[in-house]
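Hey,

The postdoc asked me to send both predictions to you directly instead of through the lab channel. I've kept everything plain text so nothing gets mangled by the mail client. Protein one:
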Amino acid sequence: MNKRKNIFIAIIFLLTISSTVFSGELVIKGSTTVLPIVQKAAEAYMAENPDVKISLSGGGSGNGIKAIIDGTADIGNASRFIKQKEVNLAGTKNVYPVPFRIALDAIVPVVNGKNSVNNLTIAQLKDIYLGKIKDWKQIGGTPGKIVVISRDSSSGTFGVWKELVMKDERVIPSALTVPSNGGIVQAVTTTPGAIGYVGLGYLTGGIKAVKVDGVEGSEQNTLNGSFPISRGLFMFTKGWPQGETMAFISFILSRKGQDLVKEVGSIPLF
């Protein structure tokens, strides 16, 4: 009896291993904020597992969550938590989205590198994005029109900005809308009067980070809770993950994976 039990356990173990090792391909879609983390992790994971192919694409958090609900992706990346309306939609399709927090992040207001403004309050940021503050001279900067740049509504970064800065009020309709963090960086870099907001990992030399209420957007200030615009970064799966999907998420949540999170400029969990 014990021998049969041991054989049964061995078979289950081998089936589990085979589903992990030979499943072959992962499709991952969603947040452009999470994308650099996943790109870095995917490169390392595929180097260790050459039989595995990982396909990545952006498109925003909303598209990532939609992809796991409709079954077109194994993992949906999101830079915000799932919305109730998305939970409701999943329920109508008998899908149970499972969240995995893989990192932390700060959403940092950014201006052109030549802009003299170094600090803005949450109230000032809100009034800029409402269109109430229209010129930099109104907030101590060099006179000139403020060019408001924002993310599209499918973006998780936009969702957090709308909640924490806008308090759910509407961004001025004349704001220039771009589909990615990289688009914000490019627009702010090339437009002297522009203001935008990006995840911490997208801060580059062409733009200048602005403090919020006197607090710098940094890893330390996000972890200690003093920076007011921060969030978790997530991976969602369609039900509890198995096989290669579970293995890849476990890799990102390992010490090696969290070191890669830090390498791309986001904030590791430990």
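Protein two:
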Amino acid sequence: MTDRTAPVSRSSAPHYTWASVCDGWRLNDSPGLSVVEERVPPGAGEVRHYHNEARQFFYVLQARLL
């Protein structure tokens, strides 16, 4: 886990791939706050799940959500 005190951009954030076609960037990963930017192409998506100790907020920039 990385404790960041200053905002970072996608160009400098740690990157990961999930579901073979989706991308994620960890903009902040601290004990009190985790901020992740993700790119999910059309037709891809997350498997329904829940987190015991976290709340999630989604801010969609461009999409059609089903």
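Summary for protein two, as requested: Residues 1-42 form one domain.

Thanks,
C.
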